[in-house]
Design brief:
Length: about 350
């Protein structure tokens, strides 16, 4: 027979409300009482009846998250941030991938709404021009992460993408670089914003753009090999770059090995800055400087926004939060006193 909340209350000679407060993490219960309740809960292996709580409150205590791909490590970092907020609040997070397919995006959104999630998070494709129709009509609080069409007023948590390019360029300029190549990756709205930041920083420093040093990689190829082969050729030219900004850490790793293979000292003769701050990649050699995209912070901000909307029964109105990226300096860029 399943243990009920009332059974624990009777056993400890406490009110059912007190037991409930302890399990919900409320602070207006003495430390001694809290310890007694939690010990008895463990001894009896008590599990809250989520279905009963849902019937009582009208909530499922479930949230959904539709992502373009589970292979993107940023998704894992966002989920870490979401769960930092949701676990203490006793909410579950259900994640599903659309695998870059717009039809699957629509289907996964519909499935989450059919589960009657209390809030839904949506992270669309970088190349998406629209959002699933179901998101435009649902009464469930929806929080958009990343790019979203300006045609829809909604809650959003985004990265200041233009700052990625600007901060990267300013960092290298401050460390003496003047001929900065830019590996911008496949053309997307995100890539365009980051490239604009690069151009802005060059203009402010009165440095002209050399179009031949702006490399637009083709999607679906090997980022490492493309960067390795491209930079090796660049470094053979009479007028060559003295630094490179890479659109990913894997691209930066290819650039790093290309410069080493040509005999350049890093960072003395050539500087490299990646993007993503992947600890596995950035730890190669003496360490690759990179831009941290603050995905965990984005998850935390989004979860807090969603919880407020749930408490207000969705009546929170459009809100927008923008998070700034953070530069992590390692050995591939010069220290200021070098």
């Amino acid at each position: 027979m399943a243990i009920r909340l009332q059974d624990i209350a009777d056993d400890l000679n406490l009110s059912k409300m007190t037991i409930s407060k302890v399990l919900r993490g409320q602070t207006d219960v003495s430390a001694e009482t809290k310890a007694r309740v939690l010990q008895r809960v463990r001894e009896l292996n008590y599990r809250p009846n989520i279905s009963a709580r849902s019937l009582r409150t009208g909530q499922t205590y479930m949230t959904g998250f539709v992502v373009p791909s589970l292979e993107d490590r940023r998704v894992a970092a966002i989920c870490l941030g979401l769960n930092k907020v949701f676990r203490p609040a006793n909410y579950a997070l259900v994640v599903s991938s659309a695998d870059g397919n717009p039809d699957l995006e629509e289907r996964e959104v519909e499935l989450h709404l059919a589960r009657q999630v209390d809030a839904l998070f949506f992270c669309g494709r970088d190349d998406a021009s629209d959002i699933p129709e179901a998101l435009q009509t649902t009464s469930v609080p929806v929080v958009y992460l990343g790019q979203k069409s300006d045609r829809y007023a909604a809650m959003t948590v985004t990265l200041r993408e233009g700052e990625v390019g600007r901060i990267s360029t300013e960092h290298l300029l401050a460390r003496g670089a003047r001929r900065i190549a830019y590996f911008r990756g496949p053309r997307t709205a995100v890539a365009d914003q980051r490239f604009s930041g690069y151009l802005e920083a060059l203009r402010k420093a009165s440095i002209g753009l050399r179009q031949e040093w702006v490399i637009e990689a083709k999607g679906g190829g090997n980022e490492y090999l493309y960067a390795f082969e491209t930079l090796r050729v660049m470094l053979q030219t009479r007028v060559r770059p003295d630094a490179v900004i890479a659109y990913s850490d894997l691209t930066a790793a290819g650039a790093y090995d290309a410069a080493i293979s040509r005999g350049f000292r890093i960072p003395g003769e050539f500087q490299i800055l990646g993007c993503g701050n992947d600890p596995e990649i950035c730890s190669i050699g003496h360490g690759i400087s990179s831009i941290d995209l603050c995905s965990e912070e984005i998850g935390v901000r989004a979860a807090r926004l969603a919880l407020r909307a749930i408490e207000k029964r969705g009546d929170s109105g459009p809100q927008s939060i923008a998070v700034s990226p953070r530069l992590v300096q390692r050995a591939t860029t010069r220290l200021l006193d070098d």
